Structures are given as structure tokens and as C-alpha cells.
Amino acid sequence: MNINENFLNTVIDNVDTCVCVTDMSGTVIYCNRAFLDYFSLSGDIRGREFQQLPSDYRDFSQISACREEHRRLVSRKYISGGRRVKITTSPIFSGGNGEGGDDIYFIEAFTFIDGDPDKNTPDSSSKFDRLVLGDAAMLEINQTISRIAYFDSTILIQGESGTGKSVLARHIHNNSSRAGKPFITINCGSIPENLIESELFGYTSGAFTSASRKGKTGQVELANGGTLFLDEIGLLPFDLQAKFLQLIQEKTYTPVGALKSKTVDVRIISATNLNLKEQIKEKKFREDLYYRLRVIELFIPPLRERAGAVELLTGFFLEKYNSKFGTSKTITPQALDILKQYTWPGNIRELQYLIERLIITSGGDAITSDDIPPLHDSESAELLSGSSPSGYRADFNSAVADFEKDMLLKAFRSHKSSYKVAEALGISQSKASRLLRKYSIS
């Protein structure tokens, strides 16, 4: 049987493994249908540079390392959305299996370990997404999303750093009419100010001294038909904000060095942990852009105001890092209580990195209160300083909890509402509500 190239392409297009092949310079020469579908790409992407591929892929790809080491690399990782994959990256020499060929290519395969790789359908949200978005404190936000996801209005997501704003943005995309189309993320705070315009809008050949002769496709064009997510929008340079306002209002933009504008069809979701109204007062953010971005406005509460979320997320991260490191560690109730009492200024991200650290550094089969390092923030530093022996610390924690509960009971009996309890105790209403739920006071 003679097997031609078309037949082989058809075979590879009908497997669930995501496959991408690049040449030595990093230019894509082939990818299969599973790769296009999973990373929300459309059309023929052959000829694209590696840096033009979605950040979801670049962040976990081993192609750059393989290009340097010229050897087969295999790893197991959790990629965006909490999906676990086996990543295999190999050099291919044009002369065959040896190294005698003139050209070297690199083939990378993502094999999904946890099931169906189609993450773009609304029902395929990862377990992590469900935990981040699924607790009672997020109920109102989820109800809002169910109403607005299919409309193309702009959305501004606000919340402290580490609360899951990017998870929420992708969740909206996956539940919209644009699900299955590109979801492109730009972090406005991570790109040098002199490069962000060309990264967003692309540039033409010879646009500036170091410009590629081929020019470059911008992230806005790569998002055509899908969603453009601008994280840390409050850090967008002021002189670029007018051009972004044009993109929202007219759906047009002009690449750097171009004479004509281009039309694009994108939905815009942005996120910030800054107070944009203060940024406006300080002349750092345009007021007209602010109102254009916040047709729909969503606020994600911090982890300290989400009763029960710490325990659920701790379980998830234990499972994740046990799988990653080949361990089977648990956490004792006393250690979990310490985590639940901490106020998590770094939110979900801080909890995630702490659990990873504890999996690595704890000596036994279970993480105990002795394994937890001192946790410091304005509300819990004294409680969780760890300066006393663990037995005294546990007794102290219990005493503080009893005192806290007694104060809340007395305040609630006198005032009958979380608002008045908060006022009487000098705390926020959200904290008062959280503590009343914690101690089942009603």
C-alpha cells in the first residue's frame, strides 16, 4: 500500500492528541485538527512564528528547550484550565533517524491524561474552574454570567490579585456564542511600554529598526472572531488608550507603520485590581475608556470572604500536586483550620503556592500544623505567627475562636443583622457575614 502525505494528514487529524511541528527557527510547518481546536485557532497557521501562538500553549511548550538540547523531552504538566497532559517533544532530522540531515524539525504532542480535550464547549469547565466559580459567594456572579455571556458587550472584571479574574474571563468566553473561537490574553503589565502597541496591533515590514521583514500579526487580529482578554488594563499606557477606545467603538485599528486601518470582530473583556476611578482622578486612565469598558461590571470577592472555598481549593491543590510529584499526602484537621483562619491577602494564588510548597517540604504522609510556615497579614499575623510550640498555638487558636464567637453572639443578639453587627464591631459587612456563617449564628 502506498501511503501519501494526504493520507497521513487525515490519520493525524483524527487523533485526540494535539500535534505541532516547527522548523529550527520556530516557524510552524504543521499542526493537526486537535491542536487547532484545543487552542482555539482557525484557518491555516503554517508560517506563523512560535511567539504568535497562543500564550496558553507557549507557557507549557518544550519546543524552545528541545531546540537548545536536541534531545527528546517528556513531561507531565497541568496546563491552563487545570488539564493534565503528557508533553512529548522530539527533534526530527531530515536525513532520517540520525543526525545526518541538513534540516532539523521539532514535533510536539500533547496527550490528555484526564479525558476529553475539548475544553471550548460550555459544559467542559475544569474542576478548578468549578471550584473557583462555584461557591455560594460567587452565586450572584454566576447568575449574571448566565444572562450576559451571549451578548457581545464589554465586561470589566474587578478584584484583588489572585482571585481568579482570568478564570472568570475564560469561563465567560466558553459560555458565549464565541466558544470555540480564539481566546487571546494580553497582560498589560508584563509587556514593556515601548512594545505593547506592536504586540497588540502588530506592525508592517520596516515599521521600526528592529522590525521583522515579514511584519508581525498583532494579538488583536489573532483574536478575530473570538475574545480579547486584557488583564491589568489599568496599566495600559495612557497614550495608547485612545487607540484602544477606537478599537472598542469602531472595531478598527491600525498596525504600527501601516497607512490603512483594519476591521476586526472581537469581544473585549478586561480585568484590573486597581481602582480605576482613582486612576482617572490622577490622569492615568481615560474616563471615556473606563465607561466603554464597563458596560458590564463584575466584582470577584477575595478568598477571605468566601466561606468554605479554602477547604475545597486546598483539596483540589493537594490532588493536583500529589499527582505532579508522585506523592499521596493529606492534611490534618488542625492544619486545615489554620489555613481556614488565615485571611489570604494573595488569595487563591497564595493558597496554591503554599500547598505546592507543603507537599514538597513536609516530612510525613500528612501535612500538620507544624509544617505550616508563619503566615503574616494584618488580620492573622499574630494568631498564626508560629512563635509558640504547636500545642500552645492550637490551644491559643481555640481560645481566640471561642472569644470571637462569643463577641459575635452578643453583637447579633443585640443588633439582629450583619450590617449592624459589622458597625458595632468595626469590621466590614462582608467579614461580619462570613464570620456569622462560620459559627452558624442566625
Automatic annotation (TrEMBL):
Q: Which InterPro entries match?
A: AAA+_ATPase, AAA_lid_NorR, Homeodomain-like_sf, HTH_TyrR, P-loop_NTPase, PAS, PAS-like_dom_sf, Sigma_54_int
Query: Domain named Sigma-54 factor interaction: which ranges?
Result: 131-360
UniProt-listed SMART domains: AAA (SM00382)
Q: Name one GO biological process term.
A: regulation of DNA-templated transcription
One Pfam family this sequence matches: Sigma54_activat
Q: Which domain of life is it from?
A: Bacteria
Question: What protein name applies here?
Answer: HTH-type transcriptional regulatory protein TyrR
